[in-house]
Each structure stands twice: as structure tokens, then as C-alpha cells.
Give the backbone structure.
Amino acid sequence: MEPFNRAKYSSVLEENRKRLEEAAQFKESDRVPVVIGLGGPYYARLFDYTFAEYYNDMSIMLDAQVKGLKWRLRWLKDDLTEIRVHLDLGAVSEGIVFDCKIEMPDERNPWLSPWIIPRIKTLEDIDRLEVPDPRRHRGIQAYYEKLEKFRELVRKNYEGLPVGGRLQIHPPVSAAGSLTGPEKLYRWLYESPSDMHRLFRKLEETFNQLQEYYYEISGSGPGSLGLADDHSGYLSKDMYEEFTLPYNLRLYERHGTEYRYLHMDSHMDHITGILVNIYRINEADVGVENDIKKIAEAFKGKVFFNGNADWRVLVNGSFENIELEVEKCIFHAAAGGGYAFDNGGETYANVPPELLRYEVEYAKKVGKYPIRKENFKHLDKILKT
């Protein structure tokens, strides 16, 4: 494997870090930061690895991620701030923790994303669900053994390259969505709310057990907590307050004593008051389904956020649609700092890299501070949406 010379990129990384830091402090730097959410599956496809190869071979996983980081620094040139690789299992944490069957890509289905077969098929299955002890659970221990093997692989090939990885489930509502399937989740919330609260309490306890175990083995402690809670965005505000708020708030108060982050690919524009005034989040990753005008107004000077650009415009190949999406986000969200341009959610693996680079370059061009109306060639269309 080609060595990774981190010092070679130190000046660029530091410049990017300062730009992002100023935005997070609600200040205007030279321009809006542009940090594209890209994951291992995108890098795998970019460098001609199938998902089966990527997820089943740690050497390929590492190679794809390292090549991807270099590609971003040398070619894409978004405002990447951190050089780090991680053990990537896909979104299957609940499957590992609760012993679900997990479908993995293989030779027959090389482009299958890893996914969980729901194990809660009836309400009675909730009673049979056990909160695991991380120190004795075979799947949890196997994960951390694999993480150590991945770290050793990195040490052998890229001495000093940081490695990330921990096993944690989603917060209760989204974790339940993985274990029951979305259809049962939303139906049972209406039909059997007491049973669902029983399930959520078990999932909250599991989250805490996993977090405390991580503190124990890493030597860390409470401070920063990020939650990824897509399923909750499809609840009405009243239902969110009943089924999501109590659990997420307790998790934030217990583990997020200094910094709180929330990722929601689904709707959050109807619960901004909760996010700002009750959770008191510091940072948010905003999905494509939100009205960025409402988000920007609610978060102004209070919550640093990124995202909302619809990655689907990058698939159809229309430069005008890409420009419109970039301008919409920057026009409504960027003035005064507090925003970093990004696509909502993780960028789809099939997005052509040339169009992604066009998006990055256009966002840098339009997002120069101070934000001026004359920089937006599609302003009339933006104002009509």
C-alpha cells in the first residue's frame, strides 16, 4: 500500500479546520465551508471494489478509505478536516447487539448494502428481548476483536493513522425500527403504545450499557454525544414528544454533558423548538426532506448545521439543477456563519465524481463571504420556492 504522508496535507487541513471552526462559532470566514458527507461505499465504488469485497475484506476496506481520503484532498478538494479511517460494518449495530440475522453482500449479491432481518415479529417478542452485557456478549466482543485486528492492519501499513470505531445502537425509536421494521414500528406506536415504551426502555438501557462499556475500554467518559434518529422524523410533533423526546433527552443529559449532535435524514423542521430549547443541541446534520428556510431561522446563532442539498440532483446530470440546489442552501443558510454546505445524508455511491466536483466548486464560488445576491444567477427561482 502507498504510504500516507499526513504532513503533506497539514497546511490544507489546518486551513479547512479554521474555516469550519469559524462557521461553527457563527462567524464568516473567507467562504462557506464545503464538507461533503462521503462514506466507504462511495470510495469502494469509485475505486472499482464491490460492496462484497469492501465489507468482507479489511485490507480492501482500508485501501478504499485511504484512497478516498487522498482523492478528496487532491481531486475533489472539499474542506476535509480530519484524516481518519474506521472499521465499517454498515448500519447493522442492532443486528450485532441483539443477535439478528444480517444479510451481507456476497458473490451472488455483490452490491447489496448490509441490512438487518427484523427479529421482533410480535409484541410478545419484546418480552423475549434481553438487554445484553457487553462484557459477555459474543457478538459485541467479536466486534471489538475485529476492531483491534483492523487497528493492527493500519499500524502495519500506515503508522500513526488514526482509527475510529465503536459499537453503539441508534437511539430507541430508530433502533426499534431496525428490530421491528418500519411498518410495525409506526403501527404499534398507535395500537400498542405501552408495549412500545417497554421496548424503548430496554433499548435505552442497552444504549447506556454500550456507552459505559466504551468508556471503560477506551478510558474516556461522558462529554460529547451524537445521535442518529431518522425514524423519529416521521412522527408528528405530539407523538415525537411522547415517544422520542424523553429517551433522547435522557441520553443527552447522561452522555452529552459538553457537546450534542443530531443527525436526521428525515424531518426535523417541525420539532426545531425541541432541538434548540430542550435538547440544546450544538450541531445538526440536516436531511433533504426539510425546509431549509425554517431550519436556518430556528438555528440562527444557536445551532451549527450542515446538509440539506438533495444529492439526487447529482444523478440526473443537470448542471442547472445542481446550481439551484447549491444556491438554495447557501442563500437561505450561510449568511452570518453557522452553516457548512453538504448533501443531506451520506452521498449516494452512484453519484458521478465529476458532478460531485462541480457541486463543490460551485458551492465555493457562490459561497464567498459576504453573501451577495448578485452571486446567485438563479435567485428568481430560489425566491419562488
Summary: The mean pLDDT is 96. The radius of gyration is 21 Å. The CA atoms of residues 282 and 303 lie 5 Å apart. DSSP finds 17 helices and nine strands in the chain.
